[in-house]
Amino acid sequence: MVSSTDRPTLVLVGHGMVGQRLLEELAARDALAGPDGRGGPGSADGSGRWRVVVLAEEERRAYDRVHLSSLFTGTTPEELNLADPDFFARHDITLRLGDPATAVDTATRTVTTRRGATWHYDALVLATGSYAFVPPVPGRDAPGCFVYRTLEDVRDIQEAARGARTAAVVGGGLLGLEAVGALRSLGLETSVVEAAPRLMPGQVDTGGADVLAHTVEAMGVQVHTDAAITEVWTGADGRVRGLSLSDGTGVQADIIVFSVGVRPRDELARTAGLDVADRGGIVIDTQCRTSAPEVYALGECARAADGNVYGLVAPGYRMAEALADTLTGKEGSFTGADTSTKLKLLGADVASFGDPFAPDAGGSVLWADSGSGVYKKLVLGPDGKLMGGILVGDADAYGTLRPLVGARLPGPPASFLLPADASGPVDTTAVLPDDAVICSCNGVTKKTLRDAVRGGAHDLAAVKKCTGAGTQCGGCVGAVTSIMEAQLAADGVETGPGGLCPDFTQTRRELYEIIRVTGTDSFSRLAREYGVPGPDGKPPHGCAVCRPTVASLLATLGPELGLHHILDGEQAALQDTNDLFLANLQKDGTYSVVPRLPAGEISPDHLVVLGEVAREFGLYTKLTGGQRIDLFGATVDQLPAIWRRLVDAGLESGHAYGKSLRTAKSCAGSRWCRFGQRDSVGMAVELELRYRGLRSPHKLKLAASGCVRECAEAQSKDVGVIATANGWNLYVGGNGGVKPRHADLLAQDLSDEELIRVVDRFLMFYIRTADRLERTAAWLERIDGGVAHVRDVVLHDSLGLAEELESQMQRHVDAYRDEWRAVLDDPAKLRRFTSSFPAPAGPAAPGHVQVRTPEGEWQSVCLLEDLEPGRGIPVGVGDGDEAVAVALFRSPDGEVFAVSDTDPVSRAGVISRGIYGAVDGVPVVTSPMYKQRFDLRTGACLDDESRCLPVHDVRVL
Questions:
Q1: pLDDT band (50, 70, 90) for residue 319
Q2: Which CA distances in Å does 188 have to 185, 212, 600, 702?
Q3: pTM of the model
Q4: How many angstroms separate the CA atoms of 864 and 894, rounded?
Q5: Closest by CA position to 748, among listed 712, 765, 723
């Protein structure tokens, strides 16, 4: 028998996400033994600290099951690991992989494992999780049938897909629809079968499910609802060929993935004599205690005190926190959890919160637009309080609505679903009580956020680091920001504009003038002559604020400075990932492809090309509110091939990735509409082609309506024009993002030529004088004199700038060149579009960059010349399926760093696409996903101490 006599022993059975979270919570409470068997840091003798034994069934350490789907888009299994080996060494944890518990004797307090070892425990925690339920239908065990729970399941599905053409997913819930997306990414024609009358029956109602089904079917997925599987067909070789349904139909499939729910793994507890619920699940109380002394359970194997088995990871984390308190003598309890969810399924945002199926005794508020794939519903109780809600297609309101569950809405319910009017948005966070949970992922309340601000966290990054709010799914960031800003105002903390960032004391406006007047044509020169020196006295390396800001200024002033492309030379190293790859980064590390369609016009030939490209590359296709066609899901490697097809067909970049002009929307106008006063389509085309590629402080949206009926919604745009019998009325400053603003009338009855001249002046004046990321709406409200002053400048030339503004805009128009065509013509630029740089051929040689493999050997991964100063590249370390994705960075001073390429939050391989910089002399990379900063030397996150990047040894020969 293996036992411990000098320290209490905690045996943890199971090493999944919740089990690992328990270990981390104990470590955070300094409750684990140190590497010498004594206490952790700051401990006198380690009394009461646990020595831990972990008995894991799988051969791998705990990994992130939530992001299993990322394995289909390039993430490696190693990158999903939740803890590095050093964690176990630091805390003297014995980790037994592939040796699960097979018996528990509660009388002797011992656990026996598959390999025959016996462990004594002072406390035993069962975290055995759940297993995937497979309906007992004929043929369910045939080759080609799979479940979707583990890394091995994913590997088996990928292997089977190589010889398959069709696939079916049985189960249309959360995991089932994720499996559908995964199978589509493998190029398989996919169907989904759901026995309930609708998709996602546990999260959305019939109306929401109808909209979701329409979106899914638009992607080429066959949806079968209200139909249960009755049999799996097989061929002569015994392999899967399809399935039969209860409605008499059948579905052809070379692969079947079952995702019809899970069942608690409670068999170990049953044989040990612990109380188990009739419907499964180890019965626990609010402290996670079972019916046996010193035996606890948590996660999906447990039936909580409220009678529920929770299949989401967030409730499991709350259990881990409560149990960590119990094991350390503190008061902690788990009485239930918020099961609100927000995620993107097959390109569609889906969210539910509170009790979306509660009886609507107080009524419900519904808004739906099936054409746009949007469905929103709020359920109210008899006292008018919000009970729950459903959001499909547009879940932006989730972050503010979820904390309001149980409270009266601070305004008309419809105002939370429809665009706000000119009076501005409803202030939702102000009415929330202090105990309202704002961040459900990490259990952060409003009071915790307010206390953090009072304690000195005066910006979003500091609040995130201090509280952990907004560091996982990001759905609460809007609410967190509102609470922070309100507390700063209440405390009288000045938050007005200062310098751009710690590297520059000048504002964006001042840097614009410096670059324009002095002709400064590079970041390095600007930093050298105007930046704040670092601790070493050298010019600053920059950060994720100043580098892309200066990149935008250089692009705007490019015609004056003799610069031609945003990816030329040093400029490339300044760009955020969207501008670097000329595409918009999505949550899984893929990108969207958005060609320009001025005024929404498109030819039949171009429609065919877009359809062929979407089908060939397996892209999700969506019509947008800006009258464009977006293609989602392209990998960085696919982007050049996709764009070559589009450019050869006569399409060009739509600049959906940049802070620049996006679209000029239009109605049918006088060309077709019987009410049209003027050719709004022609005007929108002229506006979009004139201002395309114009870099600005924030994105710009334009619109042209052919009459006062305003079908193009011009008064909600940065620049909007409305036709009248006498000309064009010009509106400016609409579209305020999260704070919508009705546009102001700037001029009336303008001719076509007058309109273009005034818009030229307006846009250039805005670009000159706005702050970083300041929309035209906020700019008009901030600038001295407001719209009246702007009218004097652009109409009456009160500052004598009119001719200069017009000339500058004309230089932009004359210099325009499609950014994607230029990339396709330049092999050096094309080399950046890869998920892994090729390793140099032949034996190791001078100039090779080498990274140490997990086996301790040095491997050449690239050439030093491949590393652009201030920019990262992705490389592979190791061989085959076990290769690890590593991000290499080279500082402007020549130092080389190697860290994991996997973003710890999204699990996407994107760190190499982040922005290099320095904070107080510390070299950092800012993740392009959620803007968290990581120390390139240690991997530590500067904004969230619970996050880190594995660091790899690197050298240059």
A1: very high
A2: 7, 20, 31, 39
A3: 0.60
A4: 10
A5: 723
